[in-house]
Amino acid sequence: MAAAALWLVLFGVLHVLTRMTEYSLFGIAPLIMATAAAERRTAIVAGGAVALTAGTAWHDSAGDSVYWTRVVAASAIGAMAVVVAGIRRRREERLAQMTAIAKASQLALLPPPPAEMTGINVAARYRSATREASVGGDLYEIIPTGHGIRVIIGDVRGNGLDAVLLAGHVLSAFRRSAIAVPALEHVAGEVSRAIGPHLDEEDFVTAVLVQVTSRSELTVVNCGHHPPFLHHSGGLHPLADGTVALPLGLQDDFTAFSARWSPGDRLLLYTDGLVESRDQHGEFLAEDQIAAALAAADCEQALDTLMTTVHRHTGGHGHDDIALMLLEHSVTLRSRANGHLADVAVKTLNVR
User: Fold this and answer.
1) Are 72 and 80 in contact (CB under 8 A)?
2) Per-residue confidence (pLDDT) for residue 13, from 0 to 100
3) Residue 119 and residue 32: Cα distance in Å, rounded?
4) For residues 254 and 251, what is the distance between their CA atoms, to the nearest angstrom?
5) What is the helix (H) or strand (E) element at residue 111, kind and residue range?
6) 43 closest CA partner among 73, 76, 77, 79
7) Of 19, 54, 211, 278, which alpha carbon lies 20 to 30 A from 46's?
8) In the predicted model, what is the mean pLDDT of the chain?
9) Looking at residues 28-48, what average pLDDT do you find?
């Protein structure tokens, strides 16, 4: 409102000092107001513009047809500005409502995981690239099953409501298949087939599926995604077998490979917003910075540190969503067999 008022005062003063006769310039003030204010404030500024037009034009063409033409034109511009302000306000309200619904939907899709699951410490984080882009296609889930703890993290191409809906289909298919299908690579195939009917021509979903068993063994299926990082003895080791697979939705036949992890190790699953974050010079976030963040005291602190590291690296100008899930191999694992829990103690012998 200050800019519009300043505009009216400026041209009012210019008219008095220079006798400038561009009366139509007063009509710009309500148009400026319509871009940011509601109808009432826009109408107040429009009334001021009409009054100034009528007052300044009176000395030049008092009461004649030219005078009334100028007044009517200023009134029409003011009325149009009020209408525009109303249309803009209603659109903004609808957009805010849709964004709130989409954000609530995404929060429902990505509930906070339990802090501990059968001997595995768990933490997760999600952050949108900007406040305006509060919804996106990043997804994660962790489920205890009779085959072990199964995890998925993925990234749907695109963002907005369509990406949220597709992420929902991926998670729904994973939750069904993770419990029912014995082999992890077949779980990936089932998810890929399930989302097929919901994909447009250019849609796909990159993902990594991981299975954790009581034998300290990891089974990994990579579907065109960045490899998980294993944090072991202070170093960062990408878990990859050298094969290249297409994303979910582009193929149904996937291959699994195995890896080992030890008590105290941490496994980081992430989306591309982490490793593709750039600083002002275009440099990617270094792996040693990720490793340093993961060395924090616990999983929650590690992810908080990592998110802070990314924010500092990008200067707060990240261009992609970030989803993170961190698993820690605790000292005691519990295996689930035939529906019963059996403690498997990991003992450390001190030899003197």
Assistant:
1) no
2) 52
3) 61
4) 8
5) none
6) 79
7) 19
8) 82
9) 82
According to DSSP, the residues that pair with 267 across neighbouring strands are 230, 327
- CA dihedral 127→132→137→138, nearest 10 degrees, is 0
Instruction: Count Cβ atoms below 10 Å from residue 179 Cβ, excluding itself.
Output: 14
Position 78 scores a pLDDT of 84
Entry field: residues in the chain: 352
Separation in Å, CA 157 to CA 226, 248, 249: 14, 11, 11
**Count of CB atoms situated within 10 Å of the CB of 119:** 21
* The predicted structure's pLDDT at residue 34: 81
For residue 223, give the H/E element and its range: strand 217-223
pLDDT score at 247: 96
DSSP secondary structure letter of residue 226 = P
What is the predicted pLDDT for the residue at 158? 72
End-to-end CA distance of the chain: 79
How far, in Å, CA of 231 to CA of 322, rounded?
19
Question: pTM of the full predicted structure?
Answer: 0.70
Q: Which residues, in sequence order, are CB contacts of 129 under 8 Å at separation 6+? A: 136, 273, 318, 319, 320, 321
182-200 confidence digits (pLDDT tens):
999 999 999 999 999 999 8
How buried is residue 2: exposed, middle or buried, by Cβ count under 10 Å (0-12/13-18/19+)?
Answer: exposed
The proportion of the chain whose per-residue pLDDT surpasses 90, expressed as a percent, equals: 46
What 3-state DSSP class applies to 52?
helix
pLDDT score, position 17: 47
What the block records as the tokens of 183 is 């082999």
Q: Report the chain's C-alpha Rg in angstroms.
A: 30
Query: Can you tell me the distance from the alpha carbon of 52 to that of 282, in angstroms, rounded to the nearest whole number?
Result: 53
